[in-house]
Amino acid sequence: MAATGYEKQGAAYYVTTPIYYVNDAPHLGHAYTTVAGDVLTRWHRQRGEKVWYLTGTDEHGQKIMRTAETHGVTPQEWCDKLVSEAWKPLWEHLDIANDDFIRTTEKRHTDRVKEFVQDLYDKGEIYKGGYEGPYCVGCEEYKLPGDLIDGEGEYAGQKLCPIHKKPVELLKEENYFFKLSEYGPKLLELYESNPGFIQPESARNEVVNFVKQGLQDLSISRSTFDWGVKVPWDEKHVIYVWIDALLNYATAVGYNENPEKFASTFPANVHLVGKDILRFHAIIWPAMLMANGLPVPGRVAANGWLMVGGEKMSKSNLTGIKPQDLTSHFGVDAYRWYFLRAISFGQDGSFSWEDFSVRYTSELANDYGNLASRVAAMVGKYFGGSLPEATAAGEAERAVQEGLAKAVAEADRKIGDEIDFQGGILAVFDFVKQVNGYLTEQEPWKVAKDTSPEGQARLATILYTAAEALRGVAVLLNPVMPRTSQALWDSLGAEAALGALAEQRVQDAGTWGLLPAGATVTKGAVLFPRLEEKKDQ
Ligand code: MSP
Prior knowledge:
The protein is an alpha/beta fold. The chain has helices spanning 28-46, 62-70, 75-93, 107-122, 184-193, 201-212, 241-246, 248-251, 259-265, 278-291, 323-330, 332-342, 353-383, 395-417, 421-442, 444-447, 453-477, 482-491, 494-498, 531-536; strands at 13-21, 51-58, 100-103, 126-136, 141-142, 149-150, 159-160, 169-178, 198-199, 218-219, 221-222, 238-239, 270-274, 299-303, 306-308, 311-312, 349-350. Strand 15 (306-308) and strand 16 form a beta hairpin. The longest helix has 31 residues, at 353-383. The chain has 20 helices and 17 strands. The strands form 5 sheets. Strands 3-2-1-13-14-9 form a 6-stranded parallel sheet, with helices on both faces. Pfam families: Anticodon_3, tRNA-synt_1g.
């Protein structure tokens, strides 16, 4: 944003996911980005910030049109069915708390897209020209000949898209072009003045090098099919699906419609995107905005790919695993946690059922779940479920207090600022390990046998310390695992004592002693049941 000197008014922390193609049902890869955005926005809400989280669907273009044709329905019918039967239900199932869901076939979007493009045309940013080149329908993108790979086997002798591994089509069209080539220097200036604009570093370097080689003007209309938004001054053309799609980030927050909403929300603080669509977001999108005098986003954060058998996970190589197959076995919370925990955001990662099972059992069930149930059980057994006061705190307790403060600061920096989910989650789970170690050393079950006032004071102090530590853990894990965090919150009697979990501020989570003595601690349901038991159910 430094490049335009723009400051948002009233400032909502605005995060977006890509809008997904609805040619098929969502898979693990789509859910990965959407869960990441949900965790990031829940985190910022818990900082007490005003937040806007947007997701949606990309419904125009040749890819959708062909899929609908194959199924013998109109593209609109196809999209309506997929959105209502597959996409929205999955986000609900995964507890995605998006503030809006935009569909590019909605009038609130299409009308504004026309206005935006008309504006560019009026400003002389668009001209008519011809283009011939290899096009990948999977990517909905013209490819540079140098980017293509040679086909083998059934595709021998043909040139393939490096992402979809399918033959490209040679297209020749008279189109409208956006003068993208003129924006190279301004874009480089943007990357220079805002080094965090593209994340991670490797993605930034790739984009900078690409732009340095010189940009070509961009074809922004198509005339060989009509499933799209019509070009307002020449209705034989529809607007290129990527221009249409990128504009969702503006149309969904009131561009040309609700100035107040737009001023307080736009531009996005973070566009979360898969690395496959980084160039659209880090090059074309800011150039479009510059051309129309609008502010550019704060950051484009690219996630790596979930891989299967060494390939980007996609509809065709999913090996049949749906998000629901995993949630029915591991639970929704564990699902949300696993991919962010196991894969460093920005890097590629392979999914394996075995790895998920091992981490679930050791980190969620044993380290975390057991700690929660042991502490609740001991407060029940030794103090009738009423949280005792810590009157005999010493060195060991101070170390736990410091551990919590450190976990809060680190998780807040990593998740909230750096979008490093793995680092943030690890900080919390290191603290969980520390608390487990503390209990192992303090042996409250042995101290309980000492019925002297000193012995009972020690016991009370140990259990208070462990419960208060868990209070902090529940707050920190709430954005990642809202269901089990709420269960823990309830089990600690924290709702009655401190109010709703979502209202707890991250900034306060490390303040020691918030959970009051006398809170009613109950042993709730096991947070992470053993997997074998779940299978038998
Ligand atoms: N419709 C465009 C995006 C337009 S945004 C203005 C599109 N859609 S898509 O359905 O193909 O979804 C792309 C996004 O889904 C990726 O950018 C990524 O965020 C997510 N993923 C899809 N497959 C993925 C993996 N295998 N791994 C990780 N993320 C993946 O492109």
